[in-house]
């Protein structure tokens, strides 16, 4: 089934990214959402363009990933693709976004700074929590609309000026909060029927609901993250937003072939053969245990691996049935760093991202 208003269904990865300029990445905590978002940004930059990666949770996760000091509130180039493309990173902050907003639209940055010193910004975002999300989503969507030549708050640049960024990737809140985060502008628009707040909310939602935006989900081949992904997809679809792809992270290859996996899962491994193999490798001499005991322990570990792999295959099948295409990222044995990030970006490009 295909629904062009809500994103590709039963389509390849290319369709999940085609024509999109804002990529919103969400996922359950612990799934590697920030790493996947950064890899996606670098993969998109492989086309030779300029990409902005926006972090909105205030965790400085991108800085930690790249081995950098805490990032200030500015768009700073942090990564280069092999063909000259670039990834700029913005650690978005609601307070700084409000000051910028007041300066851009009203020319009253000093008044905003006074409000900050008085604690008015924190008070306002505590009384109306949605305001913080409005400011953060507003910053990301402003970057999507921005044209070259200095026009920062209009989709109409000077003449036919190109966009300042070819793509914007948002490292968004986790799946448990993503619907509220993306729909909060509609709630604010309902409270403010006229005026600049309403206009701002309308502009934000115009971008978020447009065909230029996709919401991607990061998950693992485990039951709880997969269930949150399923719930998140249903929520985003219910809001009328466009689905992108499901990024399955930390995928480890099986250690055995199909027949051996099935035998191991059934507890039918030939322990006598394992004993012979241990003796041939002279591994029994490096342990105080007898080779028979080592073989039994090894058989137990292999069976656990086989059962885990079969569970992952079942979860993968369930994820495939959700509709959005699945892209896989391998488990990083040495942890995530810049080199590993480049490898992940290549894997995404090989699967259709950035084409």
TrEMBL record:
Residue ranges annotated for the ArsA/GET3 Anion-transporting ATPase-like domain, each copy included: 23-186
Name of this protein: ArsA/GET3 Anion-transporting ATPase-like domain-containing protein
UniProt organism field: Nocardiopsis terrae
